[in-house]
Amino acid sequence: MSKVVKFGGSSLADANQFRKVADIIRSDKERRYVVPSAPGKRFSDDTKVTDMLYACYDAITEEGKNAYNQFAPIAERFNGIISDLGLTLSLDEEYETIIENFRARAGRDYAASRGEYLNGIILANYLGYEFIDAAKVIFFRPDGRFDDTLTDSCLASVLHGVFHAVIPGFYGANPDGTVRTFSRGGSDVTGSIVAKAINADLYENWTDVSGFLVADPRIVENPDVIESITYKELRELSYMGASVLHEAAIFPVRSAKIPINIRNTNEPEAKGTMIVADDPNPPQHIITGIAGKKHFSVISIEKDEMNSEVGFLRRILTVLEANGVSFEHIPTGIDTMSIVLDGKDVDKKPDIVEKICAVTEPNHIEMQSDLALIAVVGRGMKAKKGTATRIFAALSHADINIIMIDQGSSELNIIIGIHESDFEKAIKVIYDMFILSEK
Ligand code: ASP
How many distinct structural domains can be found in the chain? Predict the structure, then answer.
């Protein structure tokens, strides 16, 4: 059995957190490959090392500030961890190289990646594990997309002969050897890639919460932890704003059906959330989670005999494509159609309605821009009667008007569009209806 364990920035923010991490790793001999993030915040006003590195690089390259002075607080953070852990390690030569490369404008990705790189060296030294630079085993294609084929074979062969290793998260190498990072929070993706490459039995993702919550704790007081969730459900919830794991972290392990376990470094005894391909056991509740986002726009189009006008939707989609706008949902009626768009896209293309109007010649077209979408997600709803009724009853009792409804035939989720001002209230009443009332 082998496990890949990824620790987030708050799990490695200082020496005390490093000690907890080492205890966790040493308490299970199957935890063989470790993927660290850069040191995160130690307290709420603190700055993550990754953000310090971006700022440092910009100050040196754009504002021409002194490289040594700018880098000093970053070196101080790492040196603090090293001395508090009582290690004899010195990173001075590494700092020199980094400062030189910053001056030579090695790029913002290179700059940001040094947080994981240096933290990985410290963690490997502390654990007595081998350090493997991610730039030697994780690769991107010339177009910037992750190269899974090359990475898989390289990682598998390098790790084949190494029983324990630390591989820093967040970055890899371009074909020309320069460093490229994943998007923010990308160490989650590295963990998943390593787990897939070695065909691990489990990918443990250690963070500072005890798993995925059924609803956002800023909206629902003390929500339940989801014990088990499928990749598909998680994808729906993450897309709709539930964030614990990087969105792209699901894909590598999902293809190999390797489960992910979200765990809490500060509460290691809690079981956390298991993310699995399929769960043969019945779910805890009919719904697994509720998530949502504000700031959507809905364009409503009415046109007589729209239903028999061949190519109507294609013309709209051509306008969207030409403007680089992707749609979220397109619920249709007989002579009506609604196009739900991300409000951020509409902000960038404010004339999108006029352009759609020009190609569709509707009787009526209007745009409403203060829509919120809520996804009620659950594998338990499949073939189960009454779920939609309960959602609508909860909303109607709370005096909330539903602007749009969308349920795919996979019956995995029901998406409801409501006015932004009803967002928090709607999530609360749906939570009460399905989770609290079942207790
Ligand atoms: N350190 C990077 C960030 O802050 C990547 C990560 O933590 O996963 O986004």
Answer: 2
pLDDT tens readout for residues 155-198: 999 999 899 999 999 999 999 999 999 999 999 999 999 999 99
**Residue 183: CB within 6 Å of ligand 1?**
no
* Ligand 1 pocket check for 115: Cβ under 6 Å: yes
Q: Whose CA is nearest to atom 8 of ligand 1?
A: 185
- Shared domain check, 179 and 32: yes
Residue 13 Cα to ligand 1 middle (Å) = 12
Q: What is the CATH number of the domain that holds 197?
A: 3.40.1160.10
Of the candidates 208, 223, 239, which is a domain's last residue?
208
Distance separating alpha carbons of residues 286 and 310, to the nearest angstrom = 40
Q: What is the 3-state secondary structure (H, E, C) of 104-161?
A: CCCCHHHHHHHHHHHHHHHHHHHHCCEECCHHHCCEECCCCCECHHHHHHHHHHHHHC
Residues 203 and 304 in one domain: no
pLDDT tens, residue by residue, 106-133: 999 999 999 999 999 999 999 999 999 9
Tell me the pTM: 0.87
**Distance in Å, CA 50 to ligand 1 centroid:** 7
Asked, for residue 233, whether it belongs to a domain, the answer is no
In a domain, 253, yes or no: no
For 375-434, the pLDDT digits (tens) are 999 998 887 788 889 999 999 999 999 998 888 767 789 999 999 999 999 999 999 999
Q: Which residues contact 125 (CB under 8 A, 6 or more apart)?
A: 87, 89, 131
Final residue of a domain: which of 208, 242, 277?
208
Specify the pLDDT at position 89: 98
Burial of 332 from C-beta contacts in 10 A (0-12 / 13-18 / 19+): middle
With a 6 Å cutoff on the Cβ, whether 184 touches ligand 1 is yes
In a domain, 185, yes or no: yes
Full residue range of the structural domain in which residue 344 is found: 289-438
